[in-house]
Amino acid sequence: xxxxxxxxxxxxxxxxxxxxxxxxxxxxxxxxxxxxxxxxxxxxxxxxxxxxxxxxxxxxxxxxxxxxxxxxxxxxxxxxxxxxxxxxxxxxxxxxxxxxxxxxxxxxxxxxxxxxxxxxxxxxxxxxxxxxxxxxxxxxxxxxxxxxxxxxxxxxxxxxxxxxxxxxxxxxxxxxxxxxxxxxxxxxxxxxxxxxxxxxxxxxxxxxxxxxxxxxxxxxxxxxxxxxxxxxxxxxxxxxxxxxxxxxxxxxxxxxxxxx
Length: 260
Prior knowledge:
The chain has eleven helices and four strands, in the order H-H-H-H-E-H-E-E-E-H-H-H-H-H-H. The chain has about 260 residues and is an alpha/beta fold. It has one domain: Collagenase (Catalytic Domain) (3-Layer(aba) Sandwich). The protein has a four-stranded mixed β-sheet with strand order 1-2-4-3. A hairpin with a 7-residue loop joins strand 3 and strand 4 (about 140-145). Helix 9 (about 220-235) crosses helix 10. The protein is globular, with a radius of gyration of 21 Å. It starts with a helix and ends in a 6-residue tail after the last helix. Residues about 10-25 have low confidence and may be disordered.
């Protein structure tokens, strides 16, 4: 056996040993059962959950607890209460509920601020108009949310906005490597062109003041996708009534019909 072959075999054995070692060290996640206090919050404040049948409720509960077991939630100058954990985890699971087993591999931690903040993540001073953001650079794989806005979204049963869902949709959008309003890992290729065309048409309606969709959606395609997804999950019946074409395409994107 020549020297090159020996080196190749040695490298292959080394790679195999490392892989086996990593496999043995892989952390086993223990998912605890849903506490009754969490279930009460879900039934009271999360219509998406309360409308599920019993089997789907159990699936939602497991995925919610798995999310909490694998994602750090840290309060910055504020305490994390059970209601905050439930609201955050529910916001994470709702948009991916149509994709069994899908997880946010691009998220490690969520920072919860008491109120809004600015682009330097400061909680005092002027220009504190940010309610939620998916971080980049030093804040990559981190989401920052306003506790006040998180709670308001779930307490306001008639609203069409939910900042936490908005930010998780950005993570879904980012899963293909680009935050561009077209989550290609979720959308069948045949729907991509109609989806982009519809986005442009709906943005123009907002600009013409002929739409009830949040005007923030005109910022770009990514923000439109996040904004209209909030609407889709918060008020699906209303979106279906007022924007049937948009509703139908979002059903294809998320592989679910909220409320049904």
